[in-house]
Give the backbone structure.
Amino acid sequence: MKTWQIALAAIFAGLVIGGALAFVKMAPTTPPAAKIAIGGPFALVDTQGRAVTDKDLLGKPVVMFFGFTYCPEICPTTLTEMTGWMKALGKDADRLNVVFVSVDPERDTPVQLKTYLSNFDPRIRGLTGSPEAVASAAKAYRVYYKKVEVPGGYTVDHSTAILLFDAKGQFFEPIGYGGPPERGLDQIRRLLKL
C-alpha cells in the first residue's frame, strides 16, 4: 500500500469514528423505565381463620402464588413444584414465607384451603378472605383473575406466575409457569442470598 493510500485510509477511519462518537453524544438519553409497584397491603385469613396482613410476612423472603383449590392443572402443578423446591432447599426453606392466596373466596374457605394444602409441603400457608379482601390483595399484587361460568358451575381464570419478594416486601422477580423446575429453584436460591 502506498503512503498516500495509508494516509487516506487513516483520514477516512477518523471521519467514521468521529461521526459515530458525535452521533452517540447527540442521541437523546431516555430516563430508565419506572419500576412497577407490585405488592402492598392486604388483610386476609389463614387456614385457622386467623387474620394475616402483609406486615406478618416481613422479615423473611416471600414466595407467593395466587390460585384456587378447584383449579384442574396450573395450581396443583405449581404447588407440586413449590413442594419440590422446598424439599431441595432443605432447612433453607424454613427461611421463606411460602404463601398460596385463593382467588376463589366463595369456595375456598379456611377449611377447604387446609384440606387442599395438606397434599403439599406443610410450610405452604393458605390465605383467603372476603371477595373484597381478595380483590384488594390481587390488585395490590397485580394479579389477574376472573370468574368464568362453565357447564355445571364456574372456574377461575388467573395469573400463573409465582411472585418473589425480599424480606422487606420489595418485589424481586417472578417465576414463570411452565419453565424448567431448576430455573425456579435457582431464582429462589438467589432470593435467599439477598
